[in-house]
Amino acid sequence: MDANSIMKPNDLFSINIFGLSIPVSDSIVMMWIVMAVLIILSLVFARNLKTIPRGKQNVVELVVDTINNIIKDNLGHHWKSFAPYFGTILLFLVFANMAGLFSVLPTAEELYKLTGNRFFEGLPQFSIAAPTKDLNITLGMALMSVTLVLFAGIRFRGVKGWLHSFLEPSPVMAPFHVLDFATRTLSLSLRLFGNMLAGYIIVEMVYEATVFIKPILPLASFFFDVFDAILQAYIFVFLSSIYIKEAIE
Amino acid sequence: MASGLVAIGVGLVMLTALGAGIGLGNAVSKTAESVSRNPEASGKILSTTLIFATMSEVTAIFAFVIAVMLVGKV
Is there a contact between B61 and A7 if contact means CB atoms under 8 Å apart? Predict the structure, then answer.
């Protein structure tokens, strides 16, 4: 673990399209894996839904009801337009933050050192970690939420009401309302990123200290990869819904 | 010499955690107090506390990100 490289994305390969070369870092690959898991889970769980739930359908209804209740508590009677978006964000963030649990799996370099097999030597350096420990991904999520706040304000208040909301307590506050869009993006993205990076660094330090028992010690990351992961995903959704409530009312 | 000063700066930056810790401690102690006074409102108290706890926590997170950026310069 190197302090210089810890915040930089580790580019695995690049996609060439229209003469542009787009580098793909390992956090993007992790994000694709999380997306694939979520798509497969939704395909498995959402098949033949019935009016009277049985078996696995009970689990899905519990999850959907919980998400709907969270959004209903925060947003009031406009919850129905925003519940699908927030449910997606919440599920994605919970799964993405909890991906760090699998960091005990050996990387290609470790497998090569262990087995001496030439096949593992040429593989790219891909290590499993939570994709949200990359600032680019959390910044993307925060930009999505702030854009939604902007458009929800215009949609629910009309252009005139939205413009008038900038002058609401007094016209002196108008620059601060504009500044809010930047500070909200910054604080939403940096909060998630900082928490996940801190958890990643501490767990890596514990693994480096206990290198011989690494495979049997996934519990070292339990606090950061389960408790903190779910809490941070909830806080992200919670703060976004509060911003939206402020914008539409 | 210069990198040593940067290292001292990293340590000073992380002193922000002191303020965030005191703030969080105050918020949580008042939460416990108000929940024990009025147990029916515990849900609302908890969610309100969560907002302000994250707001005081974010100062420590900013300090941590700055510290990680500075450690790369040592």
Answer: no
Q: Which of A3, A73, A242 sits opposite B71 (nearest CB)?
A: A3
Contacts of A242 in chain B (CB under 8 A): 51
- The verdict on residue A108 lying in a domain is yes
Residue A93 CB partners (closer than 8 Å, separation 6+): A132, A141, A192, A229, A232, A233, A236, A237
pLDDT bucket at A4, cuts 50 / 70 / 90: low
With respect to residue A5, please indicate whether it lies within any of the assigned structural domains.
no
List the structure tokens of B47: 């969610």
Residue A199, in any domain of the structure: yes
Report how many domains make up chain A: 1
Q: What is the pLDDT of residues A17-52, one digit of tens each?
A: 777 788 888 888 888 999 999 999 888 887 877 777
Closest residue, chain A, to B66 (C-alpha):
A194
Domain of B28: which CATH number? 1.20.20.10
Domain that residue A121 falls in? 11-248
Cα-Cα-Cα-Cα torsion A234, B50, A248, A63, nearest 10 degrees, comes to: 30
Q: pLDDT tens digits, residue range A153-210?
A: 888 888 888 888 888 778 888 888 888 889 999 888 988 888 888 888 888 777 777 7
- Structural domain harbouring B47: 2-71
Count of domains observed in chain B: 1
Q: Is residue A15 part of a domain?
A: yes
pTM, entire model:
0.84
Give the Cα-Cα-Cα angle A96, A100, A102 (nearest 5 degrees): 110
